[in-house]
Design goal:
Strand order of the largest sheet: 6-7-8-9-10
Order of helices and strands: HEEEHEHEHEHEHEHEHEHH
Number of domains: 1
Structural class: alpha/beta
CATH topology: TIM Barrel
Strand content: 5-15%
Number of strands: 10
CATH superfamily: Metal-dependent hydrolases
Largest sheet: 5 strands, parallel
Radius of gyration: 18 Å
CATH class: Alpha Beta
CATH architecture: Alpha-Beta Barrel
Shape: globular
Number of helices: 10
Helix content: 25-40%
Length: 305
């Protein structure tokens, strides 16, 4: 495994310079990456897409090592300097972090409350092996964000001042336990009331719960949102309509790019380009989404955006 990790890291450094129309790309932060999926995806399967019937572009990678190699290639190509990385297997998350030192914010994917226990995670944070919380993906099992079983994770995250990613929206993978109703962003309200210092961001800006998500972001300034799969999963026109609503509502400073690449690293570029090609966004708004907002949310020491 050490040989594989070293090889992947060397390959990542050997990528061509990140350019945009002949110019060097400005840095990007990807707030939603996965080292491994909590559900099976057959190698070669097309990328997810909605609404059915449809067919996604690309083919799923066969192994975590292949996903890592291709993810790093895309990060180099688009000058993605840091990524919020989660996975249900902490061993694989640690391998990715070791393969590209400083590139990832390693975090645990939580599919079931208690797995892993908050006490185990606390030791991981004490040892500096993890730096974020989530994706909290319990909605995939029909468990809403206000379920008391999740309280130990939110409490730990607030105490440690950890950035938290949560799957709270109306769409998800086709799993037997998934419930769209468990993704209403308003279900986060008790959590935000109990934990006013919690740094939390909602996947896909709660799509398609637009008005509920806007209301929550208005009321709770600690709440941010990522634009991840909706940059490539749904029709581009639907994504732009949704994004425009948040920008018109004045929330452009709290939207962050995230690819949610899963087993299809090529969608990282599609997501970046969906933001870059949005002609209703100013250059400042694009830089906010692609870098500045995440830099502020993560409390990075520098902000070149």
């Amino acid at each position: 495994m050490k040989t594989l990790v070293c090889l992947v890291f060397v390959l990542s450094l050997a990528g061509h310079p990140a350019t945009l129309a002949g110019q060097e790309r400005q840095p990007i932060i990807d707030m939603h990456l996965h080292a491994h999926e909590p559900h099976d995806v057959p190698p070669g399967a097309p990328a997810l897409c909605r609404p059915e019937p449809c067919r996604g572009e690309g083919e799923a990678t066969a192994t975590s090592a292949e996903t890592l190699r291709k993810t790093l290639e895309m990060m180099d190509r688009y000058n993605i300097v840091k990524g919020f990385l989660s996975g249900p297997d902490l061993k694989i998350v640690h391998e990715w972090a070791a393969a590209a030192p400083g590139r990832f914010i390693p975090s645990p994917f939580i599919l079931q409350p208690g797995q892993p226990p908050a006490e185990v995670l606390q030791r991981e944070y004490d040892e500096g092996r993890l730096a974020g919380m989530g994706e909290i993906g319990t909605q995939l099992m029909g468990i809403s964000p206000n379920d008391p079983a999740l309280e130990p994770y939110f409490k730990l995250a607030e105490e440690r001042d950890l950035p938290v990613l949560i799957h709270t929206l109306g769409i998800g993978p086709y799993l037997p336990g998934f419930r769209s109703a468990a993704g209403d962003p308003r279900l986060l309200e008790p959590v935000l009331v109990r934990h006013p210092k919690l740094r939390i961001f909602v996947e896909n800006a709660g799509y398609p719960y637009r008005d509920a998500m806007i209301a929550m972001m208005y009321q709770y300034p600690q709440l941010y949102a990522d634009l991840s799969t909706i940059t490539w999963l749904i029709p581009r026109a639907a994504f732009y309509e949704y994004l425009q609503a948040f920008v018109r509502a004045g929330l452009g400073k709290r939207l962050m790019f995230g690819s949610d690449q899963m087993r299809w690293p090529e969608v990282i570029g599609k997501g970046v380009e969906a933001i870059e090609q949005a002609d209703f966004l100013s250059e400042e708004q694009k830089r906010d989404i692609l870098y500045n907002n995440a830099a502020r949310f993560l409390r990075l020491t520098s902000d070149p955006g």
